[in-house]
Amino acid sequence: MQKQSKTIYLDHAATTAVDPRVVEAMLPYFNPQYGNASSIYGLGQEAAEAIDEARRTVADILGCQPREVIFTSCGTESDNLALRGVGWARRNLGKGNHIITSPIEHHAVSHTCEHLKKHFGFEITYVPVDKHGLVDPDDVSRAIRDDTILISIIYANNEVGTIEPIAEIGKVARQMGVPFHTDAVQAGGVLSLDVDQLNVDLLSLSAHKFYGPKGVGVLYARKGVPLLPTQTGGAHERNRRAGTENVPYIVGLATALKIAHEELEAHNQRIATLRDRLIAGVLESIVEVELTGHPTNRLPNNASFVFKYIEGEAMLLNLDLAGICASSGSACSSASLEASHVLLALGLPHEVAHGSLRLTLGRENTEEDVDYVLETLPGIVQKLRDMSPLYSN
Amino acid sequence: MQKQSKTIYLDHAATTAVDPRVVEAMLPYFNPQYGNASSIYGLGQEAAEAIDEARRTVADILGCQPREVIFTSCGTESDNLALRGVGWARRNLGKGNHIITSPIEHHAVSHTCEHLKKHFGFEITYVPVDKHGLVDPDDVSRAIRDDTILISIIYANNEVGTIEPIAEIGKVARQMGVPFHTDAVQAGGVLSLDVDQLNVDLLSLSAHKFYGPKGVGVLYARKGVPLLPTQTGGAHERNRRAGTENVPYIVGLATALKIAHEELEAHNQRIATLRDRLIAGVLESIVEVELTGHPTNRLPNNASFVFKYIEGEAMLLNLDLAGICASSGSACSSASLEASHVLLALGLPHEVAHGSLRLTLGRENTEEDVDYVLETLPGIVQKLRDMSPLYSN
User: Fold this and answer.
1) What fold, for A8-17+264-380?
2) pTM over 0.95
């Protein structure tokens, strides 16, 4: 098969193109408004004001105080700052060393929990998820101990798109007096981020998931939650995150988040229609395939599946040849050959989990894109199954 | 005094304008080459290749293997990863918890040392510096103990520009088997970064000090040096720094470093001539002023002074009105009213350290800029002294 010249990008959960409006907003801060925001002369103060305005924009969308917004270098840093920062601060205060999380977190949370356990003796409890990936708030409640210092549950899963009952889990956490963090990286551009309605104390965002640049994120940290910085130096971000502010990207993140939330309803409606057409088409045209994640309570842009008798990797390469960008398992470890920990946690057998495909839609996708996938994918699946010793037609 | 419309930027140690060639190199990676470098399809692999090429470029300039280059979000993160990463790795291996550093480090090192001491029980020894800010390698040698796990000495000081005898200190460290880190953030664009000649095991860089963007750095980490990551998640940077790669900035950093080192000799010669003209002019035209830092062994772009009887802050505001961007004490804490820890370590009294001024030249500065400062500064100093109760003419 010859490589298609047209590219249909269906991996918006991995990353997105930076919106031209965002690039335009960032450009002046490379040059000529390149001041260091810590400098007291005009050029520096212009940079500081741009950051202040960006912080207010983000705070408005989160329904929080600007001072509760910490700019970081990415969603992974935000997750690390939440877990390590609150974990160490509360542990050093003698509150304990027990963290509750789920088995379907992004690696930025799950690997950080395991790191804290292995190298620093923290204890981790994983509450179960059902076959759709849902956490039960009652399970969280039962897992809380006297020495529980933090709960971290993903807002919407990055692989299967399931949206967790964050507000309910947050209610439980608040009743028990345990700080509650949510990784909202996938939810950032499509779901409400109102931290009071969500009952969260900490929330992570990453700009490149909502048409902002890679390399900038936010950690919302509710006033009063103890947080030991993980990166020290200058007094930036009110002593919670040292390092010269990345002015262009901070402006870019705020611009991208604002656009996403202004256009949220229309975007979600359009994209969910495309998603439903895609899901229905795949389930109709291919046998021995299953939708993964929650049938309805899922991200508007996520269509994820497992196909029996084939390897996700092989599907991706064939889709790439057909001009379709997609991913299998977690985007952050597509190069890895391990089955996705998320799909295994949903109860799927290893051999089935290996045949996963995630298609995540975005702004530039059209009905024609969906139709092209529906024309292309069945043939690829059939070709790969015909090559599989496990498959007998 | 009415604000000047012309701006003369003399704060290149704080930050630099992004070179238009660097912006141009970065732009395609915002859009359309926005792929996630972890994705296996073409768009992702193009991003991975851009990072590989950037890594090779940096490695060539450092004289190291590409795998020894870790891309981070800034110089501060690089310093933190070096100190926390090696500190914890070696401590957890039972090697001890003693770190040697100098009293004239950037806050990213000094505050991190103090943080490790206060919150995690590490022990810190500060070797002295002489009145020019020089560390004596013999002092480092004497400070090494059986439980010393790391030595961190700045390559060239950010306030007074003194260049430390890094190769000699590195030799001592190597003889004693202690990993040696240097914060080369100020040296990055103007001094040799050959890690073998410098005898360093870890070296920090920040792009925005050499006409690259703010928000990207490098930590060189010699193969074999134990390093516990401080930010965990995906397997990025060979499991040493998790987080989706900031492709545009990584490309930008490499482009900026390459340009700086190609143009290094001519740039340094030109800039040192301007610096010498500036220093001589200030010392000739103003009384009761002292050059700070080493008279000759200093960064080619650094002219730093203390003026008796005046506050640096007041000088900066007056210079700003005259269109001159400068800084006093450390740029990262110019907003702070504390006297610079660097100037105090050089033995200057508090009241003198408060009257500090740092002028750091850069690519776009001209002889006319220097002459303008020399015309402007004496009047400002005299005006402020005339207002000072401590000064009697």
Assistant:
1) Aspartate Aminotransferase, domain 1 (3.90.1150)
2) yes
